[in-house]
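Course assignment 3, question 2. Fill in each field.
Student: A.L.
Task: Predict the tertiary structure for the chain below.
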Amino acid sequence: MDNTVIYLLPIGSDRFALYAEAHDDGADASGFWRAQTRRLYGRWRDAVREARNEQKGDATWLGRARDWTVRRTADAMAEQRALWTLRRAVAPLLVYPADLSEAQAAGVRDRLLARARAHHARWLVVDALTLAASGVLVIVPGPNVIAYYFAFRVAGHFLSWRGARRALQATAWRLRDEPALAELRRLAALPRDARAPRLDAIAAALKLPRLADFFDRTAAPAR
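Answer field:
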């Protein structure tokens, strides 16, 4: 049985996003590679935590550029994780808000996937060209941060495009409604501080510890 779970989140009155919970990379590996992967994943989480630390006050432009790149990369990974997960899914489960019918949920899902497939195909070409152009910076001393950033974007868009294409063409979906997700529609209209307690309770009930962060980044208003 495919254990892939994708959540259809209402992030506004008529806006939705596909969401998959992050899991520690390398959880299914063993021995040396499992230890190394977990170590690298832990270092990445530490880097993200440091980059999001507003009290750090890094005054150098290089430090600010590094932190911006880490934050942007982490946000992109969270927003594209559902599509990346779908690259290998055979029969994923779509958990959708209970105030939608199964047909409505499937329609929203397919529209999001079709839009994502076109979006990531377009930006894959743009970022690949930009990455090639950034090669001229190899003569500048130090790491080519710009090239690293666009290399990630190229890889991310490619994986997302593949995931969206597979999910539209070769995936046998299962669907299940979830009442707690329907409540997110109302919460999206509230300021962040006002919705935080209930959002945290929903995330805990669904065992999705990273849901609140994702919702706060994508739902409006974000104040």
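Instructor remarks: Residues 25-30, 138-142 have pLDDT under 50 and may be disordered. Strands lie at 5-10, 16-19, 93-97, 174-178.
Grade: pending
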